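hi! just following up on the protien thing from before. the input was this:
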Amino acid sequence: MSGDILSQNEIDALLSALSTGEMSADDMRVEEETRKVKVYDFKRALRFSKDQIRSLTRIHENFARLLTTFFSAQLRTYVQINVASVDQIPFEEFIRSIPNITLINIFEVAPLEGNVLMEVNPNIAYSMLDRLMGGVGESPGKADSLTEIEMKIMRNLFERSFDNLREAWSGLIDIDPYLTEIEVNPQFLQMISPNETVVVISFNIVIGESSGMINICIPHIVLEPIVPNLSVQYWMQTNKKEMTSEQSAKLEQRLKKASLPIVVELGTGKMTIEDFLYLQKGDVISLDQNIDDPLIVKIGDIPKFTAQPGHLRNRMAAQIIETMIGGDEDDE
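and the predicted 3d structure came back as:
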């Protein structure tokens, strides 16, 4: 049989056909042999495995969450972004799928070589622009060329959003996105060969009452150096970097300067709520502790030492007697 997983209804139908004689075992064998031949389109070469596509999906789901928070703050309105799909297609097919007039951010992601595209649907782009200029976020419903001032406003917005892309990719590689140019006509884009495989991450975005798509197009040649790192094995590894002696010394210095609350507990007592409500100045509260018993010294609410009370330079003080057994175990 093929690698497809059959549903319970399909399994029941096959068993029923075999039992009634509608289909024989020989027929199933012939069908299995015919299914081994599959049509392969060399123009639509699949360069990424399903495992690697899932890794890219996880990265950009995180990017969508970060971008939702960023745009909500910048546009001061409700924004919702989520990943709709992640596909690998020829670059030519991606160009044909986007509008003739749209907003395309072309940026580099050093240290990776090559350019990445972020295509913003005109409906969403105009809604963002309207919000940034004090409007309610309405889209005119038609795509016109942006003026130089409008282009500058949109450029600043997306340049600031690249901090979220940097953070989303930080678990895999430290990138430094840099916006090189903005294009409005996809027909002028000639970055790579039309048949080159690209990964297209499509986002659904809702801004107030407007909705549309944002597409990120990443050519295979850009991801090629880090393709092995997109596997599950890489994500499951615990690549802990050992701390250098200099880093260890700085960490120790900072820990020494850290402030911790220290409390010397004179004792505890119990009383009813009625007695508590009628407390007045001069009343005495009885504690469950003898005057000769050592006091408990707590650091961050954790008992660490025993001490005895006293005076130092006319001020109340406590002298440490010993470390409490088991006090260090509370830190673990």
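The chain has a mean pLDDT of 81.
The radius of gyration is 33 Å.
cheers
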